[in-house]
Amino acid sequence: xxxxxxxxxxxxxxxxxxxxxxxxxxxxxxxxxxxxxxxxxxxxxxxxxxxxxxxxxxxxxxxxxxxxxxxxxxxxxxxxxxxxxxxxxxxxxxxxxxxxxxxxxxxxxxxxxxxxxxxxxxxxxxxxxxxxxxxxxxxxxxxxxxxxxxxxxxxxxxxxxxxxxxxxxxxxxxxxxxxxxxxxxxxxxxxxxxxxxxxxxxxxxxxxxxxxxxxxxxxxxxxxxxxxxxxxxxxxxxxxxxxxxxxxxxxxxxxxxxxxxxxxxxxxxxxxxxxxxxxxxxxxxxxxxxxxxxxxxxxxxxxxxxxxxxxxxxxxxxxxxxxxxxxxxxxxxxxxxxxxxxxxxxx
Amino acid sequence: xxxxxxxxxxxxxxxxxxxxxxxxxxxxxxxxxxxxxxxxxxxxxxxxxxxxxxxxxxxxxxxxxxxxxxxxxxxxxxxxxxxxxx
Lengths: 347, 86
Description:
The structure holds two protein chains of two kinds. Chain A is of the alpha+beta class. Chain A has helices spanning 21-29, 69-83, 93-101, 103-108, 118-123, 129-136, 149-154, 178-192, 245-258, 290-294, 299-307, 335-344; strands spanning 4-9, 35-42, 58-61, 87-89, 143-146, 163-166, 172-175, 196-200, 205-214, 219-230, 236-241, 261-270, 276-282, 323-325. In chain A, the strands form three sheets. A six-stranded antiparallel sheet of chain A has the order 13-12-9-10-11-14. Chain A has a four-stranded parallel sheet with strand order 3-2-1-4, covered by helices on one side. Chain A has a four-stranded antiparallel sheet with strand order 5-8-6-7. Chain A starts with a strand and ends with a helix. The mean pLDDT of chain A is 94. In chain A, helix 1 packs across helix 11. Chain A has three domains: 4-113 and 330-344, Rossmann fold; 120-125 and 203-325, 2-Layer Sandwich (D-amino Acid Aminotransferase, Chain A, domain 1), CATH 3.30.470; 142-200, Dna Ligase, domain 1 (2-Layer Sandwich). Chain B is mainly α. Chain B has helices at 35-45, 50-60, 65-81, and strands at 15-16, 21-23, 30-32. Chain B has a three-stranded antiparallel sheet. In chain B, helix 2 (50-60) packs across helix 3 (65-81). The chains are: A alpha+beta, B mainly alpha. The A-B interface holds A 205, 225-226, 228, 240, 242-244, 320-321 and B 13, 15, 23, 25-28.
């Protein structure tokens, strides 16, 4: 009989700019090597994953990262008492810091995680990525980190357009003059706070790479994907797996240099003359992660195995030309369910 | 003719179908050609030279040789531009 694992997963917001949680759960559930009880951890009562009862067995609301690690820990202690968690897979950039900080405490309670350590996590931070690239031999567009508007005004003369204005966690706007830069600065600041990153614009083809590292410098899986259809928020609505040795080598080098533990996504801009610029490194699985399972390298399931102490051999091949097409679906539920999660914080 | 295109070999990893669908797995680009385009692709896959392709097509279809040579050069230039040809 297979052991049943109780796995908590965040980012159940399968919306137009989706979190990866539902895709992670779908991939894990497809693995025949273990059976699972999935515990959803949600921030909002209307995250669609909460109501997908064929994927998520039970959901608990957790406090926002801004509430601090103590309140998160209190909530996790309660959930653990109820569910006896084996593993937590956090999938939001903004919450990862808290979970990394709590890693040892969670381990003490018998809850595994499979996350990068703080140094690894911070090295690839948007505000340090250029320095990281310089130090480790990666092409990264030059950037300037802005903590107040005065700094932006001071550099007005030096800016060359177009230029990219980015938030610390999410959002990026291509600005073609200083007015647009200012507008983007205020818009992103009001949503994600400071600092704001002003990054050189690189023209090329965007390629995304999902990678899984074992924490010892070995890459267990790499799948490069090109977006075939992009939403107005820049998210992939359809994408295809590529056969590109250069991209695979780039991801392997990243995992080796950082000794990355867990899933990550490299956002790469390949210029017309073939130079791969790393635009961002997301420290968690991307929302399109189910494509890795569909292509033959189930990254979420492999992460589960490694988190539970199993040695996983690197995958050797995957299906090239595998396509995902995201779709919208009106999930119908009852007011009682909404009331239960809103009132009790559990569903 | 065909001075510009010296190498007429289709890249090894390009997937082609009998219906004239081409897929470049390195870039993710895909293309559709018409029936004649599909035939030319199949001949290119057999390592046929432009001269051999011209002879083959002109033998089987009622087409002006000079005109076909020009069209073939345009077509292969396009394939080169899209990284289908090496």
